[in-house]
Design goal:
Elements lengths: L37 H5 L8 E17 L2 E14 L4 E6 L11 E5 L12 H9 L8 H8 L6 H16 L3 E4 L2 H13 L10 E4 L2 E5 L3 E9 L4 E4 L4 H4 L2 E3 L8 E2 L4 E5 L7 E12 L5 E4 L6 E6 L1 E13 L5 E8 L4 E8 L5 E5 L2 E5 L4 E7 L4 E8 L5 E8 L69 E5 L16
Parallel strand pairs: 7-16
Antiparallel strand pairs: 1-2, 1-4, 1-5, 2-3, 3-15, 4-14, 6-8, 8-12, 9-11, 9-13, 10-12, 13-16, 14-15, 17-18, 18-21, 19-20, 19-22, 21-24, 22-23
């Protein structure tokens, strides 16, 4: 547990979920009875939005973390990420005791799939982001309002990060610079609660199904962008599959709330296809970003105009079982929800982790597969005729502040509060000597590689939690979507 520091005492937060990424771009149609498209199997699921690569900690100053009667000096400030397709993001850490991985891949993620989902103070973190640097770049005005004395970008970033850590991790942490510490105190005391921002771009649901010769959907566009480009399946010209509105009119542009349909011609060979949507927009401040592999969860502090995307799939057949499958990490249950909807006229039986499940015609069922915290998973669903679908990711639902211990400063470093320390500040990027694996983490935090770990079941047996839902015309609606606003 964290010891009391000044007059502040907080509990650590729980429930962090690393969302997974779906490959951006198009997935070509394939036979229903065969393997699903390669791109769907080779990348984890993503519920839409921005995907980015971590460049490093770029604007920072020093802070001191207190755990029990021990203390650790560490840098605190802004990270920078490069967005796939163009754009730059600035983020703060909301996961103090996890290490960052150099050049880690990150995905825009709903709060309920990160530690924010179980954090009653998540809205205060967003308030801090909206009322401090870099959203407030008038540092003279910010210093006057907060009563801090002169601020630089580095000390303003450090003070903001410290205030965030107090709410994200329940950390007893202070900024070394007096002005930065006063800013952290002011932000913590003044913070109100602001609701979670919605995704920059998503498609809901992410999977639909139905008989050939009908329009499959709807798939609803959710976005803050003014205009979205709609890309049809890669082989649309040959297969005759079109993306349309409810009246059957072809669609190549969409806006927030647009409903899209897969128009599958009668006589089309059984198969699967995907549409992708893309837009350029600023990602909303306060969106969470989780690592594809284990790496500190981040929260967005600022965004340039950036490329965002989302993908939805459709499955059709002339007759028989017609399944739509989707996956979503479930922090509350400590596992991964696999949702199967059967829009055919016969039962669909699939095997998951050695257990068979049968989905009757018109039925939707969710199977929750338990996964250990911080564990990579690779779940493969198989069915008749060679049917295969794979979902990958890492379950990472909790911060570790409540259990972290510290071994103290390395012998080569003085105590950060000894009075002989010069508080460092500056700008760093990958390759400058700043060890990203140590950034924001105590020296005693275990370094867990971001490589896939074999899925392990406690006691060697899978435990499944089954939930049935009434038939939904949209398939597994909401299984891949953003939480309700």
């Amino acid at each position: 547990m964290f010891a009391a520091f000044s007059v502040r005492r907080r509990k650590s937060r729980a429930a962090r979920l690393a969302a997974a990424v779906v490959a951006s771009g198009l997935i070509t149609a394939g036979a229903l009875g065969g393997a699903t498209p390669a791109s769907a199997d080779e990348a984890p699921q993503h519920q839409g939005g921005a995907a980015a690569t971590l460049n490093g900690l770029t604007t920072f100053h020093q802070a001191v973390l207190h755990v029990g009667n021990q203390e650790q000096q560490l840098p605190a400030g802004l990270f920078e990420m490069t967005v796939d397709g163009g754009g730059t993001l600035k983020t703060y850490c909301i996961d103090l005791h996890n290490p960052t991985q150099e050049k880690a891949r990150y995905l825009e993620t709903p709060w309920d799939q990160t530690s924010l989902g179980g954090n009653k103070d998540a809205g205060r973190i967003r308030w801090i982001l909206q009322h401090s640097y870099p959203q407030v770049d008038d540092l003279v005005g910010l210093a006057e309002e907060a009563g801090t004395g002169p601020l630089t970008p580095e000390t303003a970033a450090a003070g903001t990060q410290v205030a965030i850590w107090r709410y994200s991790d329940g950390a007893e942490v202070e900024a070394l610079d007096p002005a930065a510490e006063k800013l952290a105190d002011w932000l913590e005391e003044e913070a109100g609660s602001v609701a979670e921002p919605r995704a920059s771009l998503s498609l809901e649901p992410g999977a639909v199904s139905g008989p050939a010769g009908t329009r499959l959907g709807p798939v609803t566009v959710r976005t803050g962008a003014g205009r979205v480009t709609v890309n049809p399946p890669a082989d649309a010209a040959a297969s005759g599959i079109r993306i349309t509105d409810a009246a059957g009119k072809p669609v190549d542009r969409a806006v927030d709330g647009s409903k899209l349909w897969f128009d599958v011609p009668a006589g089309a060979a059984d198969g699967t296809a995907a549409l992708s949507v893309q837009a350029t927009t600023s990602v909303p401040v306060g969106r969470a970003f989780a690592g594809v592999t284990r790496s500190q969860t981040q929260i967005l502090a600022g965004s340039s105009e950036s490329t965002v995307s989302a993908v939805a799939t459709a499955t059709w057949a002339a007759a028989g079982a017609i399944p739509a499958l989707s996956a979503k990490k479930n922090c509350a249950e400590g596992g991964v929800d696999i949702t199967a909807t059967n829009k055919g006229d016969a039962a669909f039986t699939f095997t998951l982790m050695g257990t068979e499940h049968t989905i009757q015609a018109g039925e939707t069922r969710t199977v929750t597969v338990p996964v250990a915290e911080d564990q990579a998973y690779h779940l493969t669903i198989t069915g008749p005729g060679g049917f295969t679908r794979t979902f990958k990711g890492v379950l990472d639902c909790r911060t570790t502040g409540s259990t972290a211990t510290m071994t103290g400063q390395p012998a080569s470093q003085p105590s950060p509060l000894s009075g002989g320390v010069t508080a460092g500040a500056g700008t760093a990027t990958a390759g400058t000597g700043l060890d990203l694996a140590e950034t924001g983490a105590s020296n005693a935090t275990p370094m867990i590689a971001g490589t896939a770990i074999a899925f392990v079941l406690v006691g060697g047996a899978a435990v499944f939690f089954l939930r049935r839902k009434k038939d939904d015309p949209a398939g597994a609606a909401g299984a891949d979507g953003e939480p309700a606003e």
